[in-house]
Amino acid sequence: MTDHSKDSFAELERREWATPEVAAGYARDFARAADMVVPALVDGCGAAPGQEILDLCCGHGNVTRALLATGAKVTGLDFSPAMLEMARRNAPGATYVQGDAMATGLPSGRFHGVTMGFGMPHVPDPPKAIAEAARLLRPGGRFAYSVWCGPGVESALVYVFQAIADHGDPSITLPPGPGANDYADPAIAFPALTAAGFQPPRREIVHSHWQTGDPAAPYDFFLNGTARGGALLRPQPPECARAIRQAVVDQVLEHHGSGPVWTIPIPAVVISARQS
Ligand SMILES: C[S@@+](CC[C@H](N)C(=O)[O-])C[C@H]1O[C@@H](n2cnc3c(N)ncnc32)[C@H](O)[C@@H]1O
Questions:
Q1: Count of domains forming the chain
Q2: Strand partners, 264
Q3: Whole-model pTM above 0.90?
Q4: Element of type H or E holding 102
Q5: Nearest ligand 1 atom, CA 37
Q6: pLDDT tens for residues 1-26?
Q7: Which residue's CA is minimally distant from atom 14 of ligand 1?
Q8: Is the separation of the CB atoms in 117 and 34 below 8 Å?
Q9: Domain of residue 154, residue span
């Protein structure tokens, strides 16, 4: 059994995303929903031919690739060597930097646009990442980021975390860190963006989902391809793992019918704002 409480949140995130199997699992399965959010991110940062765009937390390069397709000059940044290796293959026209989204070391005012696809839930200090995006943008440049919608919505994410709360081994915990859905909430996100110098933000819901022939897919996708969910799921003793998996299947059958193909929602929010 694993008690993660002695790890810092930052160490856990670095270790999990650096694990090649987690990075590959995210790219293969989980990102099928994240890919549906890419157009809103590209639109939100205002990418256009010849512009310099930075893709923070670029992962395996799904957003990077779409940014390149606009004709922009794109830099992808991520701290995971495993992710960067995939990004170099998936989106070969970009420049890649291994670094931390909260302190990139890149020059101030260099970029017309900055994106951050599903990076915000993973940085230990989101206001610091927002301030870094503001610093990197030219005046009038745009920042766009995505976060999965949180509790109170119909979502695979809610099914999985509720199943962990109900059936997981209570000794398996995460180190303290920001909430996974905090920065989808305008009451948290908008003041942080405004404090960093952004103009009033825009918030858009994207109805991303997984289409699958397996009602246990959300369990498997979180188990094999996420940092926070995976760190809670992978160390579960077999009887807890079985109960969590079954609870997720029950939710899918109850809310999305008897199959044989399920469309399972995992909606996201895209928030974008212009630098003053
Ligand atoms: C959920 S994946 C998102 C990948 C891709 N952007 C997308 O939209 O699907 C999160 C990515 O953020 C990276 N990451 C997390 N914290 C980071 C940090 N502090 N600095 C740089 N990269 C970070 C991880 O390595 C991982 O590639």
A1: 1
A2: 210
A3: yes
A4: none
A5: 8
A6: 455 656 799 999 999 999 999 999 99
A7: 57
A8: yes
A9: 4-274
